[in-house]
Design brief:
The chain is an alpha/beta fold. It has 2 domains: about 210 residues, Alpha/Beta hydrolase fold, catalytic domain (Rossmann fold); about 90 residues, no CATH class. It is about 40% helix and about 15% strand. Strands 1-2-4-3-5-6-7-8 form an 8-stranded mixed β-sheet, sandwiched between helices. The model has no long low-confidence stretch (mean pLDDT about 95).
C-alpha cells in the first residue's frame, strides 16, 4: 500500500517558517508538531533537522521550532554580519522566540539547547533575560569558553591550549583563501588539514565505540573524493573558530539571574567540558538540577540516543 505523505495532517509534515530578522534576513526555522510550542537549538556544524528522530514520537503533543543558525543547515547560505557570532545568534534567537510567542499567543516556552546552541542561550539570557523561557535544558555546555585562574572548566579542559594551538594553525592556514567561492579550489594539503581537524573535533565529542565508528565513517574523505569535496560550510566554521579563540566568552555573571527551572544534562565522559566543572554550574544556578549520563561524551544524542530521548521527553512533560 502506498502512502501519500502530502495527504498526512499538516502537523506530521515538516514545515519551514521564515522569520524576518533585524537586518531583513529571512532565517529558516523547521517546524513540526501540534501542541505546546517548544524550541530546540542545535550545535556547531549541525543541521537543526538532525533532532527529528528524537522529536517525531512527540509531535502529537508538542510543536517543535528548530531554528537553523546562520551558516549552518538550511541557513548555510546566510552570512554573519558580526564577528561575535554567539551574540548575533542570540539576537536572532530572540527574534524567533518573540515571533513564536506572538503567533502562538503564549507568554513563554520551553527551550532545550546543546553545545554551541547552549552557549547562545547563555548569551540570550545575558541580553534578554528569562521572561520568554519557561524552562531550560542545558546540554553539555559551560558558560565559559577560555580557562581562567578561577575556572578550569573551559572548552577541552586541560587540553585547551593544545587544541587551541591546532585551531589557530588551521585558521591561519585558511585565511589567505577566505574569499574563495569553493572548497574544491583550496590546495589539496590544506583541504586534508581542515577535514582532519574537523574529524579530531568530532571524535573528541563522542565516547562510545559505536559513536566513534560512525564519526570515522562519516568524516573520512579518501584522497580521490577529497579532490572534489564540496564543503559548503568551511568558511563559516573557520569564522566561528576565530571568534571562539579571540573573544572572552564568560557568562557566569548572569547565572544567578537565571531563576527559571533548569535541567543540566551532562555527558559523564565529556572531553569538551569537564563534568566536574559542569556540575559546579548546577550548584550556581538558583533553580537547577543535573542529570549525568555516565557513558556519554559531549555529543549526548549520538552517544546515548535512547537516554537522550527519555530525558528530553521528561523535560517537556515537566517530570524532571
Amino acid at each position: 500500500m502506498k502512502i501519500n505523505l502530502l495527504s498526512l495532517p499538516r502537523h506530521y509534515q515538516l514545515q519551514t517558517l521564515n522569520v524576518a530578522l533585524a537586518d531583513g534576513t529571512l532565517l529558516p526555522v523547521s517546524v513540526i508538531g501540534n501542541g505546546q510550542p517548544v524550541m530546540i537549538l542545535h550545535a556547531y556544524g549541525m543541521d537543526a533537522r538532525e533532532f527529528l528522530p528524537f522529536i517525531l514520537p512527540l509531535i502529537d503533543k508538542y510543536e517543535f521550532y528548530l531554528p537553523h543558525f546562520r551558516g549552518f543547515g538550511a541557513a548555510k547560505d546566510i552570512k554573519l554580519t558580526q564577528f561575535d557570532f554567539v551574540r548575533q545568534y542570540a539576537d536572532d534567537v530572540n527574534t524567533v522566540i518573540e515571533k513564536i510567542c506572538m503567533t502562538r499567543h503564549v507568554e513563554s516556552l520551553p527551550v532545550a539547547a546543546i553545545s554551541m546552541g547552549a552557549l547562545v542561550m547563555w548569551a540570550y539570557f545575558e541580553r534578554f533575560g528569562t521572561s520568554r523561557v519557561s524552562r531550560y535544558m542545558n546540554i553539555d555546555q559551560s558558560p565559559v569558553i577560555h580557562n581562567q585562574v578561577d575556572w578550569q572548566g573551559g572548552l577541552f579542559g586541560k587540553q585547551q591550549q593544545e587544541m587551541f594551538d591546532i585551531f589557530h594553525e588551521v585558521v591561519d592556514m585558511t585565511l589567505p583563501y577566505a574569499k574563495l567561492d569553493s572548497f574544491t579550489h583550496l590546495p589539496f594539503a590544506l583541504k586534508r588539514r581542515v577535514t582532519d581537524v574537523e574529524r579530531l573535533f568530532s571524535l573528541l565529542s563522542v565516547n562510545r565505540p559505536r559513536s566513534k565508528a560512525i564519526v570515522q565513517i562519516l568524516t573520512h574523505q579518501k584522497d580521490h573524493k577529497l579532490v572534489f569535496y564540496d564543503h559548503s560550510t568551511w568558511q563559516h566554521k573557520m569564522r566561528c573558530l576565530q571568534a571562539y579563540l579571540a573573544l572572552p566568552y564568560d557568562f557566569r555573571t548572569i547565572i544567578e539571574d537565571v531563576t527559571i527551572p533548569v535541567v543540566n544534562l551532562i555527558g559523564g565522559r565529556s572531553k569538551l567540558y569537564d563534568p566536574i566543572w559542569q556540575q559546579k554550574i548546577t550548584q550556581m544556578l538558583p533553580n537547577a538540577h543535573e542529570i549525568v549520563l555516565p557513558r556519554s561524551g559531549h555529543a549526548v544524542p549520538l552517544d546515548e540516543p535512547i537516554r537522550f530521548y527519555k530525558v528530553l521527553k521528561d523535560f517537556l512533560d515537566n517530570k524532571v
